[in-house]
Amino acid sequence: MWTAVAAAVKEEKGLLTLPTDNLTIITDSKIFLNNPNFTTDQDSPHFHINLSNQTLNYLEDGDRVKFKTKDHIISNYCRHLGIKKHELKCEIYLTDEEKENSNKIIKSLPEKYIAIEPHSKLSWSKGRAYPFEKWQKIVDATKNKVNFVQIGEPNKKRLNNVIYLNGETTFREASNILKEAKLFVSSEGGLVHLANATETKSIVIYTSYHVYLPVFHYPENISIDISLHREEIGGYKNHHLYKNETEKHNENEIIEAINKNT
Predict the structure, then answer these.
(1) 149 pairs with which residues across the strands?
(2) What integer pLDDT is reported at residue 120 of this predicted model?
(3) Cα–Cα distance for residue pair 186/191, rounded to 1 Å
(4) 32-46 pLDDT, tens per residue?
(5) Could you say which of 3.40.640.10, 3.40.50.2000, 3.30.420.240, 1.20.120.790 is the CATH number of the domain covering 96-260?
């Protein structure tokens, strides 16, 4: 999302963004790599952003996080930084080597496919999980209409009836897989922002963890809000009621959204 901020800075102020972690210039970010809107040259004209500045953060951390804004994370950053105009549009710039590596894989894929990530990253919040068995039902119900390509971290459980690419690409290279996809289907997480950078529409599952959906939602995407206990458990990183609402949710809502958009 910082890539969207840097693009807005370049457009409004004509400056490159110098990102730091407190006083340390960030030189090894996989998101900022090859992005023409960032610089590591502190002696050149630049717009400095300290990514560790808690004033910019959209939440206060804790067992139950407190969301400090109801606006999109990108809008929140830009407001605090005094950037008046911005787009809810992340960016990623692949190197020639990354393009070559991912294009080799794309050549072997069907012309029409949906990218899917059934394994949410739960190190931040267990509230992102959606049952693997329901992901399988979603694939089985629509596999005769469209192909599925599973992406994500290596060595994750494989869905049946999919092309399995977990671990075959880097996070950055996965953007090219997403770019060619007709849709991306996932719980809220990092790959949704990556799909936004490629202009691929996503069907995104939100739970009661997500107190304010606009904080995470991109206008082109389709929100599947399965929350049943938002007032009671919103913001909790871990709560037994998350399992309750995922078990009660009817996956046909996701199946219908896929059918309408393919």
Answers:
(1) 115, 163
(2) 85
(3) 8
(4) 999 999 999 999 999
(5) 3.40.50.2000
